[in-house]
Design goal:
Elements (H helix, E strand, L loop, with lengths): L1 H10 L1 H4 L7 H5 L4 H13 L4 H8 L2 H4 L6 E6 L12 H6 L3 E6 L17 H13 L9 H12 L19
Amino acid sequence: MGANLKNLFELHVKQMSRNPRINIDKVRSITYLHEFDRELQCSTWGYPTEGAYYRDASSCDALLAVRIPLFAIHAEDDPVAVKEAVPYQEIQHNAFTVLCTTRLGGHLGWFESGAGRWFAKPAIQFLKEMAFTIDPAGCRHERHIRASQEEKSSDGDRAFDPMRRRLRTHAP
């Protein structure tokens, strides 16, 4: 993946060199994906570290704000979205989210014999269930009702807002 990113970078190096915060030589010398993120993404968007970039790009906190049915599929052998980073607690806390995990599948994989990909089948089944079987009004969960009431009675400074911590930056 790092090699592909470097190739993509080289295709656009003329445009990238216009950004004074990007060190072209450093980007060309990277080996690992996190180095690419440190040298290019952080420089471009103003993040102090790649960790800050990863936290800000994560959907973990946003999952708590989801209020429409969400179906996610994750392969435990995914080398990019590793299982240790899956926000299991946030998914369990939100009645609107459903997670399907598989032991194998890699990153955007889930191939089956005959070169087909099976992920569409459970996704379609989920959508059919949501469209024809599930009453959306019944999706409210007690924790959401309780949390909404607590937020309303809060002084505003103490209620958790899953979207509040997002870094606000402006591209050059």
